[in-house]
Amino acid sequence: MKKKAARESGDRLFVEDLYPLGLFHAALIRSPVARGKLRGVDAPKLNHGHVLIRAVDIPGCNRMEGYGDDPTILASDEVRYIGEPVAILAGPDKNSVDRLASECVVRVDARQGDYSYEKFSSERLAAKRTAVFGDPDGAFAKAAHIVEGAYRTGRQEHWYAEPQGAVASFAYDKMEIYTATQWPFHVRDTVAAVLDVRDEDIVVHPCEVGVHLDGKIWYPSLLSAYAALAALVCRKPVKLFLTREEDLLYSPKRPPSIIRHRAAIGPCGELLALEARAVVDVGAAAPFAEETLDRLCLGALGAYRCPNVRLEGFAVRTNTPPSGPFAGFGLAQAFFALERHATRVAATSGIDPVDWRKENAVSRGDLLPNGASLKEGVPASELIDSVVSMSDYRRKWASYELLKRGRDGRKDGPLRGIGIAFAYQGNGFLSNGSVAGSYSVETTLDKDGKLEIRTSAVSGSRETAALWRRVAAEALSMEDADVVIASNRTDEAPDSGPSSLSRNVTVVSRLIERCCVAVRKQRFRDPLPITVRRTVRAARGGAKPDSAPFQQFSWGAAVVEVELDPVLYVPTVRGVWFCVDGGKILSERKARSSLENAVVHALGWASRERIEPEGGSFKVGEPLRYDLALPAGAPPVKIDFLWTDSAVPKGIGELPFSCVPAAFAEAVSQAAGVSFDSIPLDPRSIRDALEDA
């Protein structure tokens, strides 16, 4: 592979850097309408060496099978969203490929698309959940207060370091795929099924993923299938690389949601019953709809004791581009809703929002709605007290309440507010079909005393790889420099599952440690080299490989302080305070860096990153208008850890998404004197709410 050295990052290349000899380029021919009957694709006269590939040319499966509500590879009968690929055009010259692709005409008998997810019919459901615990009706009949609310969250773009893409080439009797993926074996299996070949005939080389926010779990598999199909037809290496505009228009986003809460409150402010109805828009297809909905429903009931519960959850298909996982999957959307409702419940009960959270938080022995028992203590009071102390929350909250009441409807400054939120992160997957089978890590201690770790897990940063080396070195009492992370290409490393939901810390790190402990027991009895493989398998009854790690919860509390411009309605974050219980912190530097970056992205989602489709598609000029939150403009962030004697590392990277947006919305609500129940809270939405008030 030829490469541009200036674009290298660590040991992996970006897809954009790859230019194998004889490279062909590919472009996708897309549907111009959101819904309709596909009649055909008319192409102009193609230059020599150019080919047009349709669904009938696929030798194998035309679906990305095995992971839920999966997208088709190429539409063959119906189109379901604007931009859905219906054909691939490939040729030796990128400029001519792009020109010819733009001249292709897709003939569709258009029908009216379904764009709303709040009202839906049963045939549009990708997943559904219902649950009842206790006697909600009886509890509501005895309630001192009933508090209702509806809470909305918007889409969020991942905005990767480079647009998504893939390169497919031939090496002897194998096809090699280069793509930035969090799950190399998912790419391998998808491409093998599409080409109708054996899994071992496909070799996947993971490229640099950068900060992916869980957006590169399944979509790279789809792009790899396009590149591989074109390479098979052309008998040449093929590169499919989206433009930044294509990536923004058609790649998966964080799905929008609306959650309606109804709470029965006792005379002392306690939760007697809680009803929740959660609806999420998964677009035209969503391989992880089940997982997203499970986490949305679980988080919709929050981290508070409630003996009587009624829950409904719906993942709804619309004629918009497929939605996909974002950090936390559905937990972030759910905790935003519940934490905003908790503040409303506390206000209705006349209780300080800090005290209400501390008094009603779950504790050891309580059951969560998924049946998981909290076997460890819940440090709610410690976490909340820490951020309250760091931020001077109580004094500021009381002062800003007095300022708000003293304004008497006027909007002159200073308009300040402060908010708090509490949440947890469950590590690993929940849903049937999200992950299946078994996942492994392998280590080899060679004759030179060096240790080699083989895993297909994709580290998003050098710090993750350094953490794995440290875990192995400590287990074997050796230097970090003597530990090597081997290639994670699929023909050299075992399947370690998707690098998502903190699995690199909770699952992969523990498998590495287990391998090294086994090596340590054998190193003075058996001759070198010693190779050990350890595996996590699905439990009986259909439980998932990660079901045990999900019982290990990490906890967090956040405080956000804002100042609101009374003229321009721009909310400026004055500070963020965050306290985390993440079990054993393997690397404090990595933990702080991960949390600080996540805080920036969480604030972006809450305050400025707005991207909504109109008529089923995003606006053409959206890349220039998307208001991305950047680390350079980050507010002061102070982080504290609860240092415990826990020997188990727990994921913490998604906690800011579950805590910070709700705390931000509460702070803006106090500053403006208006309750805000949806995000993003940009100046336009704040202005409109104040004018309505």
Structural description of this entry:
The protein has 693 residues and is an alpha+beta fold. The chain has 3 domains: 5-112 and 164-241, Aldehyde Oxidoreductase, domain 3 (Alpha-Beta Complex); 257-429 and 549-692, Aldehyde oxidase/xanthine dehydrogenase, molybdopterin binding domain (Aldehyde Oxidoreductase, domain 4, 2-Layer Sandwich), CATH 3.30.365; 438-537, Aldehyde oxidase/xanthine dehydrogenase, molybdopterin binding domain (Aldehyde Oxidoreductase, domain 4). The chain is 30% helix and 24% strand. It is built from 17 helices and 24 strands. Helix 3 links the parallel strand 10 (174-179) and strand 11 (202-206). Helix 3 packs across helix 4 (219-234), helix 7 (331-349) packs across helix 16 (655-672) and helix 8 runs antiparallel to helix 9 (380-391). It is globular, with a radius of gyration of 26 Å. The termini are far apart.
Sheet of most strands? 7 strands, mixed
Number of helices: 17
**What is the class of the largest domain in the CATH system?**
Alpha Beta
- Could you tell me the mean pLDDT? 90
For the record, what is the CATH homologous superfamily label of the largest domain?
Answer: Aldehyde oxidase/xanthine dehydrogenase, molybdopterin binding domain
By oligomeric state, this entry counts as single chain
Number of domains: 3
Helix content class: 25-40%
Overall structural class, as computed from helix and strand content, comes to: alpha+beta
Radius of gyration: 26 Å
CATH architecture of the largest domain: 2-Layer Sandwich
End-to-end C-alpha gap: 61 Å
CATH fold node name of the largest domain: Aldehyde Oxidoreductase, domain 4
SS strand fraction: 15-25%
Task: Please mark out the parts with pLDDT under 50 across 5 or more consecutive residues, or reply none.
Answer: 2-10, 539-549
Q: How would you describe the shape? A: globular
Order of the strands making up the biggest sheet? 3-5-1-12-9-10-11
Total DSSP E strands? 24
